[in-house]
Amino acid sequence: MQTKILLLALSAAAFSSCSTAYKSAQTPDDVYYSPVKIAEEEQKKEREEVKNEPYVDYQISMGIRDRRWRDFRDDYNYDNSPYNYTCKNYSYGYYYNPYYYPWAIYTGKTSYSKPVNTTPRMVNLNTYNGYNSKVAAGKTFNNNSGKPANNYNNSNSRVGNLIREVITPSNNSSSNNSRTYTPPSSNNSSSGSSSSGSSSGSVSRPKRGG
Amino acid sequence: MKKHLLLISLFISSITYAQVPEDAIRFSFYPQNGTARNLAIGGAMGSLGGDLNATFVNPAGLGFYKTGEFVLTPGFLLNNNKISYREAASQNKKDNFALGTTGLVLGYGSRYKKNTSNALSFAVTQTANFNNHIQYKGLNNYSSFSEQFAEEFAKSGYSIDDVLTNNSSLPYTSAPALYTYLIDTVTVNGNIQVKGVPEYILDAGQALQQEMIKTTKGGITEIAIGYAHNKNDKWYIGATLAVPIINYSSHTIFKESDTSANTANNFKQFEYTDNFTTKGIGANAKIGIIYRPKDYIRIGLAIHTPSFMSLKDTRTTSLTTQLERPYWNSPYSMDTTITISSREFTNNQPGESRYSQNTPFKAILSASYVFRETENVKKQRAFITADIEYVHHRGSKFGSQNEEPTEGEKEYYKALTRVIKASYKGNFNFRVGGELKFNVFMARLGFAYYGNPYKDAALKARRMLLSGGLGYRNKGMFIDITYVHAMNKDVDFPYRLEDRANTYATLKQQRGNAVATVGFKF
User: Fold this and answer.
1) What is the number of domains present in chain A?
2) Do A174 and B199 touch (CB under 8 A)?
3) Is A180 among the domain residues?
4) Which of the residues B499, B504, B507, B517 would you substitute to probe the A interface, choosing the one with the greatest number of A C-beta atoms within 10 Å?
5) DSSP per residue over B63-108, as a string?
């Protein structure tokens, strides 16, 4: 956060130094009225400035003062040398050296070898109103299916637990036909059993009573 | 192959799963951001113009610029949440830094026609700020969080062995719940059913203590380039191309515990942690027009296209379940604790899901009255402005972007779009504000109301904002300060069940937003 604030403060300081045009005159408010700033005049002014600018070859003048400037366009510079196989132009993770390997070598990072699980975040869409009105009406044990407000239970009234039992269509309160376990017929996993011993890649549950 | 067939059969039997519908509303139901001046007048900018924030509302408003301007808008958000869950009240706070509209406008008059000009803007703003902390708890004698896992697993058609693999199809929910025995199969009246262990407490007529702790971070930052043309100071047309950058993260903990003194009734407690991030990038366009039939009056119309976003979710969950006897039939201890991470079921790395999401389109109709549109700043007096905005919340769409999406995956993204249409509605938002100007000083007031996006009238949600601010403009620069007080209402479902009535928390959020804009004319 401190970096952001510092960056904003520096930007403000930089622009405040540029804002000289309206320091003496009225500051325009573009919501009410924006005074014309003709582009042609601006460009003409710029052209005049360029015309009056004396021609200076900075490379020559700097080369007189400092020898390093003379090598600025040197084609035999080491970095641009054809004998330099690790030349800067080929430094994007690849390089080529015919004396060692006859193919390009990739030096980038290796990625995960295992496949990434791409299962989306999931929710049972039948729990949303409007998707399946039959279910929405049934779960409230209310015939007025046109009243979605009745699909909610937001208080711990004494009848709350009673409703929980009533809506479950069974003599046993813990029975719920909509949650019947129906695995594929080839598989015979059962209550409380550990899934250990299954095919490779399985994750075994800890055994009960351990 | 077997897994794919199972998934397809899952959808043929009309039991569908998908990215959650709340993702749609998160990226469309939020108040408008802006410069301090614009926020002080309720955010109304559909016809007023002359403010950098026109780039994000009605780009035609940039056409009022014939000068240059640089604007910086830092801000600070103060969240204060009051939450009611099953008649129990909670309160919590979260403060954070925010960024209002910041950028540059370059306005130029035409060299050929006196009353014609063009303007170009480069701007960035945080269109949505997700930083918040929500925490609530309450007693529940009706349903358990674990039942959603039981329901999901029972309807999936998978066996326990199918789910407990290191590349599971239900790695974040049913797999950890099965592994820790939070849910399991039981035989009732000769039928094998799936049951959550906390249901034994509910069946005995006792209540569960539930607690939700949710911390969200990030936002949507939009970078935009806007252009506007002013023809004869009568017609202003403009367009903006914007790139929203999405960065959202959520850390959720849900706890459930037995409230009875009985230490041998199967279940003691569980703690489920869900960490996920959504990152991505998108594109959208905004076009607008402003007509100035005569001096002082401005009428505006703007259309915002949906944001076409490419997103990636990264997710890890973990579950710790503490079980009691007689369920945990150990002769050595009264209870046992099992912990597992979803990484065990996603090849020991976080799961990743790539998808596309389109946000809904918006349309804005607006009018303004400006007293004294004169060059002499001392004679400029005031303005009032108002926007009506329509947001088509039910128009959000999702699609898979995984490299090899299964048929089932494609099918449930279509189903998700249908659910969004059925659950949400288009709503109208209103923004109104005004300014009084005293030479170089200005005072402003504003109001904004964002209507309920939920189709179900029982779910109350809205955003209501009151704002006020002061401004000073002189010597080539300007400073505006604004305070926006938001009174928001919303609902939060900790979990949803298909075969029982659902429970939700009602949220009342008071959000303060202190904003300052510093600008320079050139």
Assistant:
1) 1
2) yes
3) no
4) B499
5) GG--SEEEEE-EEEEEEEEEEEETTEEEEEEEEEEEE--EEEEEEE
